[in-house]
Amino acid sequence: HRRRRSGRLDIRATLARSAPYGGLMFDTRWKDRTINKPRVIAICDVSRSVQAHARFLLLLLYSLRDVLPGLRSFAFTHRLIDVSDRFEHDTPELAIERVLDQVGGTGTNRGTMLSDFAAQELPRVDRRTAVIFLGDARNNRADPQTEVMRTLHKRAHRVVWLNPEPRSFWNLGDSEMPRYAPLCHTVRECGTLAQLERAVDGLLRSTGGSR
After folding, report:
1. Distance of CA 169 to the CA centre of its chain
2. 3-state SS of the chain: helix, strand, coil percent to 5?
3. pLDDT averaged over the chain?
4. Nearby residues of 52 by Cβ (< 8 Å), 6 or more positions away
5. pTM of the entire structure?
6. In what order do the strands lie in the sheet with 72-76?
């Protein structure tokens, strides 16, 4: 219990401090604990194919700020747009409406989004970075840019995909989940509140956000 709260006992420093007391350990010293806090990037699809879920996903994205300090937030239909400032300064309702007005409403091109991500963010991704994708992985038959995902999987601490569609839809039509899923560390269906609760719990465990 003490180790969990204070770290490990530093025997050498404690013995040195205890010399004036005849070796009795009145003045204990503890080794500092190193807590790695991941840098978290979340990318939310707000295109037409997720229109029914867009507000739900953006509200999830907004709420994650409370449990994942330093979260960088992005939204896209085809171009990657940094919306962190919206979520930092606006109320949830206003932030969501402004993001949808700015970014939403067109057809999806994940290849273009991933190309933007590779140019803007990928050079800074390392083993302390967790990347969360929110969306259905549909791509209108465009180039899915799986090489970017493969590089991301190798470099990041975690790659997590939360998909609001039922798993039975993931192999249908223009869904790229069969290509993207093997390049993620965690993939979860996230279309109901119960699934959302389980997904967020697993997400916090994997990113260290519950500490």
Report:
1. 23
2. 45, 15, 35
3. 81
4. none
5. 0.77
6. 80-82, 72-76, 39-45, 129-134, 158-163, 186-189
